[in-house]
C-alpha cells in the first residue's frame, strides 16, 4: 500500500515518516521532490519556461505515479532475476559497500539481456537516460544512482517492459520481468499535494495499477507552522516559498478534509503523531476508495452523453481517478455497441435509465499520447433532464465526487483542452441541427 503523508510545508511530514518506519517494519520512504529536482536539470529549457512549481509538470505527476508503482514491489528481499547473472546483484547491494562490488554486480546484471538493462551514474549517461524517461521516450532504460535518496523509473516503452531500478542510500535492488516478483511493500510518501486535480491524476494512476492509497493530512495551527518554518535552516528563497504556500494550504483544506484523514498534531511529539497515523492506516479512515480501472493497452472506444437542464446548461461530472471534469459515460466493453455502452454508463454513473435511441453528436479520434493509447470517443445527445430526473441523480462515490450544470464558457475552465474541443464540436452539431455527427481528429 501507499501511505501519502500530506500537509503544509513545515508541519513535520518528513520527521513523522521517519518515526513511521519504526512502526512499520519493511516500509520504505519515497520523496517525489527528488524527481522534481531531476526534471529541472534534465528537461529542455522551453519545457520549463514559466514553470514555478515542478508539480505543474505533467512529467513529474506521471513519473511519480509510475515510480511508486514500481517501487511498491522492488526492494523486498526474495527472488530477482532468475537467469543467474543477476544473482550477485542483490547480495552485493545488501553488503552496503555502495562501491565497486555493487557496480560490478550490476554490470553482471546488465549482461542478462535487453530486458534487464542498467546504466551506472557518474559519466553523464544517467542524465541522458533520465531525460529520455522524463520525456516518455521509447526504450527508456532504468538508472542506478549509488547513494541517492531517490527512486527513478523509466517512463515509456522501457517502463512497460520492466526495465527499472531502485536506489536507496546506495543499496541496489534489481528486478527483471523474467524473474520472480518480490512481494509488495508499504511505501511512505511525505509530500505536500494541494491541487485536487493533481491528486486525482496521481492517485487514479495508482488505483489503475491496483494499488491502495491511504491519504493522511497532518494539520496544525498556522502560527505553529510559521514558527517551525522560520526555525528551519533554509535560505531566504525557500523560506518565502514555504510561507507563501500556507495560503494555498488553507484554500485546499476543505477538499482535503473530505478526501483524507486529518491528524491534529497540536501538542503531540512526532512519535505520537506517527502512532496516530499508523492507527489511522490500520483502521482505514484515510483509505481512498477509487475505482480500480485497469489502464488500457490498446486503442479503446468510449461513449459519453450530453445532458442539459432547462437553461441549456450541460451536465459535467468530477471523477476521483483523473484530473479535470468529464462527461457522463465510459469505455465500451468488448463487442458492446457504443450507444449501448452510453446507456449502461449513464445507468451506472448517474442512476438514470434511458430508453434510447441516442443521437450521436460528435466522433472524436484521440491518437496515442503519454496519457494513454487513445481511441474513438463519441458524444451522444441525452436531451433535457426534467427536475424529477435531476433529483434522482446518484453517483458512485468511488468513481465520481460531484456533478454540476455549466454554461459553455464555464466548461472551458473545467475541461481539459481535448475534452473541450469535443464538447464544442458536439454543441455546434446540436445547434445546427446537422443530420450527422461532427468529426474531430487530434493531431498526434
TrEMBL record:
Keyword field contains Magnesium: yes
Ranges where the Nudix hydrolase domain occurs: 298-428
Required cofactor(s): Mg(2+)
One Pfam family hit: NUDIX
Record InterPro entries: Nudix_hydrolase, NUDIX_hydrolase-like_dom_sf, NUDIX_hydrolase_CS, NUDIX_hydrolase_dom, P-loop_NTPase
Keyword Ribonucleoprotein applies: no
Annotated GO MF terms: hydrolase activity
PANTHER family, per the entry: GDP-MANNOSE MANNOSYL HYDROLASE (PTHR43046:SF12)
Family: Belongs to the Nudix hydrolase family.
Full protein name: 8-oxo-dGTP pyrophosphatase MutT (NUDIX family)
Amino acid at each position: 500500500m501507499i501511505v501519502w503523508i500530506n500537509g503544509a510545508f513545515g508541519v513535520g511530514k518528513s520527521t513523522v515518516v521517519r518515526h513511521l518506519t519504526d512502526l512499520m517494519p519493511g516500509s520504505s520512504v519515497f520523496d517525489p521532490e527528488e524527481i522534481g529536482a531531476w526534471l529541472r536539470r534534465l528537461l529542455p529549457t522551453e519545457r520549463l519556461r514559466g514553470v514555478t512549481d515542478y508539480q505543474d509538470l505533467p512529467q513529474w505527476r506521471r513519473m511519480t505515479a509510475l515510480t511508486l508503482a514500481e517501487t511498491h514491489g522492488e526492494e523486498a528481499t526474495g527472488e530477482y532475476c532468475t537467469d543467474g547473472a543477476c544473482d550477485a546483484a542483490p547480495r552485493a547491494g545488501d553488503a552496503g559497500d555502495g562501491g565497486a562490488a555493487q557496480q560490478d554486480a550490476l554490470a553482471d546484471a546488465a549482461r542478462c539481456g535487453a530486458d534487464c538493462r542498467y546504466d551506472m551514474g557518474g559519466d553523464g549517461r544517467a542524465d541522458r537516460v533520465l531525460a529520455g524517461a522524463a520525456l516518455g521516450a521509447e526504450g527508456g532504460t532504468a538508472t542506478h544512482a549509488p547513494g541517492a535518496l531517490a527512486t527513478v523509473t523509466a517512463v515509456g516503452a522501457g517502463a512497460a517492459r520492466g526495465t527499472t531500478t531502485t536506489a536507496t542510500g546506495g543499496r541496489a535492488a534489481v528486478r527483471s520481468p523474467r524473474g520472480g516478483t518480490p512481494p509488495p511493500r508499504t511505501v511512505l510518501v511525505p509530500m505536500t499535494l494541494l491541487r485536487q486535480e493533481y491528486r486525482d491524476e496521481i492517485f487514479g494512476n495508482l488505483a489503475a495499477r491496483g494499488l491502495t492509497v491511504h491519504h493522511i493530512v497532518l494539520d496544525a495551527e498556522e502560527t505553529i507552522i510559521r514558527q517551525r518554518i522560520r526555525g528551519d535552516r533554509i535560505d531566504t528563497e525557500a523560506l518565502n516559498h514555504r510561507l507563501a504556500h500556507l495560503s494555498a494550504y488553507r484554500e485546499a483544506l476543505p477538499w482535503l478534509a473530505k478526501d483524507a484523514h486529518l491528524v491534529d498534531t497540536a501538542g503531540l511529539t512526532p512519535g505520537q503523531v506517527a502512532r496516530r497515523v499508523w492507527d489511522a492506516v490500520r483502521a482505514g479512515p484515510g483509505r481512498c476508495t477509487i475505482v480500480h480501472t485497469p489502464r488500457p493497452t490498446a486503442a479503446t472506444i468510449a461513449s459519453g452523453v450530453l445532458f442539459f437542464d432547462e437553461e441549456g446548461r450541460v451536465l459535467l461530472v468530477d471523477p476521483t481517478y483523473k484530473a479535470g471534469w468529464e462527461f457522463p459515460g465510459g469505455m465500451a466493453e468488448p463487442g458492446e455497441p457504443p450507444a449501448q455502452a452510453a446507456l449502461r454508463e449513464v445507468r451506472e454513473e448517474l442512476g438514470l435509465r434511458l430508453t434510447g435511441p441516442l443521437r450521436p453528436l460528435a466522433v472524436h479520434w484521440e491518437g496515442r499520447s503519454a496519457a494513454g493509447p487513445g481511441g474513438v470517443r463519441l458524444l451522444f445527445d441525452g436531451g433535457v433532464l426534467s427536475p424529477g430526473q435531476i433529483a434522482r441523480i446518484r453517483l458512485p462515490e468511488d468513481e465520481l465526487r460531484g456533478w454540476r450544470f455549466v454554461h459553455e464558457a464555464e466548461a472551458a475552465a473545467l475541461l481539459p483542452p481535448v475534452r473541450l474541443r469535443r464538447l464544442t464540436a458536439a454543441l455546434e452539431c446540436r445547434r445546427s441541427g446537422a443530420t450527422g455527427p461532427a468529426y474531430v481528429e487530434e493531431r498526434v
